[in-house]
Write a structure and sequence with these properties.
2 copies of one chain form a homodimer. Chain A is mainly alpha-helical. Chain A is about 70% helix and about 5% strand. Chain A has helices spanning about 10-25, 35-45, 45-60, 80-100, 105-125, 130-145, 150-170, 175-190, 195-220; strands spanning about 35, 65, 70-75. In chain A, helix 8 runs antiparallel to helix 9 (about 195-220). The structure holds a DNA duplex.
DNA sequence: CCGTAATTTAATGCATACATTAATTAATGC
DNA sequence: GCATTAATTAATGTATGCATTAAATTACGG
């Protein structure tokens, strides 16, 4: 599952986690609309925490609240994908550069390599879903290692927004072997402190991802996932 | 004023606009704490819309809600400034590149140049506050012209967060004459479609801004504005 | 006199009731 | 029969009250 409802304290947080999870897992369908009351009933709580959660999710781009038209799960269009990947293509390479400059800790190296191994294993087992999650974990942890909380939040939100599209195209794309080569090389550049190589490689890596996804979506007529 | 409360419909939006304005204008002091009830009374409404507004403002980094410790206006530290400017140094040059690549419309050119003129006039009149607002408008409009709504939102939030620091250091910095030279050159690069020059110039422009601000804050011992 | 536990206090989390207002339906006139 | 307007409906916006729980205070024991 994508954002499996973690054990949180308040109902607002529960609602946030659960709804986000349902949206990312495609259980709440894009373009579908719901009323506050429906969602509240669905989650077994009153409207208040649901409202607070949906307001949050709206500002993060997962849904749209139109006062008398209900709460609509936002589909992701090609334009959205392009906009998001364009920004990730700026932000993730910056993160790679930063980590390379500041130095990769032992712990950081272990963390990243564990994801690389997980991806290798997943590919071996032909488990594309496992691969996708390990890929996501790798990219997010690299960004987190850059130590800029605002950056982490933004990148995390964007990965959340494209999650459905990534999962939907998983079986349509070629096996991501080359991708994992990039990851290994990236870690080595980062570890050796070669920030320019790290930045450039990661930039190309992201550009490739964008091109591939946009082409896939175009050719398979998958607009509005 | 910074975020002068525009005429909005709902009380939640009113509360959001008003509080954001008060925070940016330094009327609600950084590090000060308030209770939901206090703010509600202050704004002449019940706790509900105040809660919704403060949740929003928290997720945008303007304040922090700690359940039994009140709502604290977040001060901005040097580390915050560095993190924010590092990201703006990636994002704004990208915007400049994008606009240069896609082409600057007649309207866009007029818009940007109007801000440049406003800055010139402000400098002539020694009105640093007017200059600061025109500078902000220039940078934000350039980003908007890139046509990536997510980018605009992020950059706007960041400028909001550093607003207090910029205003506080306004009289401490040298007169920003060179800055406006940059703006003129940038517009000309963008208009001529020279995206590499536009990107590079804007990148340097942002780097300089970062260095200057961070140095000022350090030397004047202005941590936690 | 100090530290721990029980009690009190009060702020938030949440539910609910009500007010408001937009959408829908009905009604009226042309 | 159609269009315009009034009446109705229902969903959201907001206020409020209660429950919960953390902080503060007091009381008690060592």
């Amino acid at each position: 599952m994508a954002g499996s409802a973690r054990k949180t304290d308040t109902r607002t947080q529960q609602a946030y986690q659960t709804l986000k999870g349902l949206i990312m897992d495609n259980a709440l369908k894009p373009s579908a609309s719901y009323l506050e009351t429906e969602l509240a009933e669905m989650l077994g709580m009153s409207r208040t925490p649901v409202r607070e959660a949906t307001l949050q999710l709206e500002s993060e781009g997962f849904l749209s609240i139109r006062p008398r038209h209900g709460i609509t799960i936002l589909p992701i269009s090609i334009e959205d994908m392009q906009d998001i990947y364009d920004l990730l293509t700026e932000l993730e390479p910056y993160a790679a550069e930063k980590v390379a400059r500041d130095g990769l800790s032992e712990h950081g190296h272990t963390l990243l390599m564990s994801h690389v191994s997980a991806m290798d294993a997943a590919l071996q087992a032909n488990d594309l879903i496992a691969w996708a999650y390990a890929d996501e974990a790798f990219h997010m942890d690299l960004v987190r290692l850059a130590g800029n909380a605002r950056l982490s939040k933004i990148v995390s939100t964007f990965w959340g927004q494209v999650h459905r599209a990534r999962m939907a195209t998983l079986t349509l794309r070629p096996k991501p072997v080359r991708s994992n080569e990039d990851h290994r090389r990236l870690v080595s550049f980062v570890q050796s402190g070669d920030w320019q190589a790290a930045r450039n490689l990661h930039r190309e890596h992201r550009k490739n991802a964008k091109t591939m996804l946009v082409d896939l979506i175009t050719h398979h007529n998958l607009n509005h996932l």
